Task: structure prediction
Amino acid sequence: MNEIPDAACRLAGAAPAGAPLSSVAVQHWQGAQLQAPELACDVAAEVPVALVFNGISHAVMMATPQDLEDFAIGFALSEGIVEQPGDCRDLQLQAHAPGTPDASYAVHLEIAPRHFMRLKDRRRTLAGRTGCGVCGIDSLQALDLHPPPLAPAPWCAALDGATILRPFATLASRQALNAHAGSLHAAGWATPAGELTEVLEDVGRHNALDKLFGRLARSGRLGEPGFVVMTSRTSYELVRKSARLQVPVFATISAPTALALQLAREARMQLWALCRPPTALRYV
Result:
């Protein structure tokens, strides 16, 4: 896929994203024994992030305020709002009260007119919760549960369990935020040989995946051979986003839902789950 022009990646007023973690006080108990009356503990930030296309707010998602430029681009691509990274011609990040309990962010994207017209035709407003992928959809038809089959990827035939599990062996060590807070999902990108090259984190699994796709898109690597690995369960939304971006292999730590498996089969996508070294399941 086309790389995003450099001009599309500038920030308005150099508005920074907020801190993804904050420190709070906790008591440490072991059974009935109080071990420490007060300890510092990190928690993950979860803030509203508005995604605004050509001046019109399309979605407000609850997300970790990090890698928001990647998130916006990945969302636009995985939701079918644009077809190529180059269709996003400008990106501006605005912050409101960063570092406070009222923090919020808006990512403004300018997209090609033909995509904006299509977006207006099917516009919806999302109140995005981290555990929900269909908030705001106004009809069953809008669920888009029948992805077209992917083109065959010859390299997939050589994949085995050892290759699929290779990135999972190092995924946890690459989750810098989760190591502190313990509440973030990760989406990673692995080469056909199983080398883990990117890891993006967020409190929402859908957001983490969109951040990953956005990172790949902004560096011109979306469309290269490789597969997605995730720390979450395999939900249908994750499969649908991946199928839309022509990802032929999807692997997760937890099990899939029946609907996710149905979509993967329709898309002719390899689906691996319960990937916990030394075992993994491939659904056939």
User: Anything to note?
Assistant: The CA atoms of residues 23 and 42 lie 4 Å apart. The chain has a mean pLDDT of 88. The chain has seven helices and 13 strands. The first strand starts at residue 21 and ends at 30.
